[in-house]
Amino acid sequence: MAKKSTKSPLPLPLLAVIAAILIIIVVFLSMKPGEKQAVCGDDACDGAETCSSCPQDCGACVPVCGDGACGSGETEASCPQDCAPVFVGPPIELPETVICNFSTNAEAHARASAENRLDYCNCIDSESLKESCKRSVADSTAFTTAMYTFDVRLCDNITNPYAKESCTSIILDAVDQLIQEDPLYFIYLYANTQNYDEAIPLLEDLLAEDPDNYGALIGLAILYSDKSWAELGSGEYTDKAMNAITRALEVNPNSAVGYRIQAQVYKARGEVDKAIESYNRSLQIDPDFIDAYVGRAHAYRMMGAYLLALDDLNKAKELDPDRERIDIYLQLCVLLSGEDDRAEEALDNCEIVVSSPSPVFTAEKSDAHLEMAYLYMRAGKYVEAMDNLEASLTYQPENANTHTQLAELYNRQRNFTLAQESAEEAISLDPQKTKAYVELSYALYGQGKFQDAIAKAMKGLELADSDPGLLGPQKEAIKQDLYYILATVYRDMGDSANEAKYKGLGDAIVL
Question: By the 8 A CB rule, do 460 and 438 touch?
């Protein structure tokens, strides 16, 4: 039997008094010698008191232009850095994601490296270890992707000098061997990574030896049509693409693949109706041809026929039970991300793309991370958005769309200097990128550079209708953004006539 204590318990009031005394002792012991205890309301601004923690003693905080808050006395004209409106769509809701379930920094680092997940690195509580983790993941992604795609350009993105040298050496040796053993496979690998300047001459050499080489003709049609998007859907590459696919269909007039490529060339020309006719012809030959459904879905999206596009993608999905065709899920992600109530479904489809174990789908994974960043940005989850933009760049460092979206993210965070740098990088990579001019114009406006902002907005309007990267309805939305930016700039310049003019042009656009 336990021995009963002979001590009497202290009464509760006395315990409370003792606790209060102990707290006071701790406070005084923590103060430096001679330091007076700060008491808010004693008419003395001292100790740790500030204008924000104790305005009674320290007075109201004076707004500082550039602190990210539009304070009293600041206006859009006097401080656009803090008060300029950020043109964003309505916020969307996304579920909370819990990824930091690691017991140690080492475990987070190991999982990040094993799965090429940059976001896992953010679970590390040491800034130096976090940055080391991100460099390691980026290097690993570049090295692995380069090995599978034979794209030596990716080696340049590796920061470890020994790994960079090894990557370059291995790929150059492998390329020499592959060109000899299987040139068409090598060419298609280069096409998949948009390395057109290397692939096109190889195919032209094959055709010089054999003018009726069907595979080479199909390959050239694909490469020329893809490259023509950068030529605004016209010019020599579109013509060469059409010549190549016409010759290929003469060699094999009953080719579902041929008509699918012909449709792709028509899309590059902006002839969407003809593209759909060619896709229909392809599906008449092969009703289960996934590529034709995916391509026709994109053509419907160009027309703004989103329900028809969704029908084609769902049909393609039925034909892909093992989820091997990640281009289906990328298009579903892009299509559904425009619908606020289906944002979570869009995110799930992009997860299928980025989680694919295949290392060769660099463009698709880059675009999927880009779309996820867009969704997270709209949900106000800027950390997750940045994680995905960084991941996008590990697959395609020269993706102009990613740099454009980085500019948008920086604009939303009112970091107008970085927004300007990112937008200018996007334009250097793709001078026709209208959306980059939207972000650049706004970034310049945010810095009070009104004339420069006007010039860039005007350049964006000049490019909008001919930008091959914009689907039909997107062109009008982009132009509306540019008109409203111009109206805002002119308003702050006191030019009411131009303000009314451009606001009217923006209001006249019905989306």
Answer: yes
Q: How many CA atoms lie within 13 A of 390 on its CB side?
A: 19
- Phi–psi pair at 88, nearest 5 degrees: -130, 155
Query: What are the Cα distances from residue 326, in Å, to 109, 144, 329, 353, 369?
Result: 27, 19, 5, 5, 13
State residue 421's pLDDT score. 97
What are the chain's domains? 415-511 (1.25.40.10)
Q: Are 224 and 234 in contact (CB under 8 A)?
A: no
Average pLDDT rounded to a whole number, residues 444-455: 95
| Poorest-pLDDT segment among 153-162, 210-219, 230-239, 326-335 | 230-239
Q: Residue 506, Cβ neighbours under 10 Å: how many?
A: 17
State both tokens at 477: 């939305």
Q: Enter the tokens of residue 462.
A: 């000049």
For 383, counting Cβ atoms within 10 Å of its Cβ (0-12 exposed, 13-18 middle, 19+ buried), the class is: exposed
Report the C-alpha gap between 272 and 263 in whole angstroms. 8
Q: Please report, for residues 233, 324, 361, the alpha-carbon distance to residue 357 in angstroms, rounded to integers and kept in the order given.
A: 34, 10, 9
- Which residues, 6 or more positions from 71, have their beta carbon under 8 angstroms from its beta carbon? 61, 62, 63, 64, 82
DSSP 5: P
* The two three-digit tokens of residue 282, written as one number: 């392809």
Indicate yes or no: pTM above 0.85.
Answer: no
Query: Which of 31, 49, 32 lies closest to 40, judged by CA?
Result: 49
What pLDDT sits at residue 187?
65
Tokens 């419907």 locate to 300
Using alpha carbons, list the distances in angstroms from residue 173 to 152, 178, 197.
11, 9, 19
Which residue carries 């055709």 as its tokens?
Answer: 207
Among 471, 510, 509, 474, CA closest to 303: 471
Q: What is the DSSP string of 269-280?
A: HT-HHHHHHHHH
pLDDT band at 73 (very low <50, low <70, confident <90, very high): low
Average pLDDT on 396-414 reads: 92
Structure tokens at 98: 């819990």
Q: Summarize the confidence of residues 214-225 as an average pLDDT.
A: 82
Residue 10 is predicted with a pLDDT of 39
SS (H, E, C) 421-455: HHHHHHHHHCCCCHHHHHHHHHHHHHCCCHHHHHH
Query: By CB neighbour count within 10 A (0-12 exposed, 13-18 middle, 19+ buried), where does 160 fall?
Result: middle
CA distance 214 to 22: 89
Residue 202, pLDDT above cutoff 80: no
Judged by phi (left if over 0) then psi (alpha if -120 to 50, else beta), residue 116 lies in left
Per-residue confidence (pLDDT) for residue 174, from 0 to 100: 76
What pLDDT score does 259 carry? 94
pLDDT in the model for residue 65:
56
Average pLDDT, the chain: 80
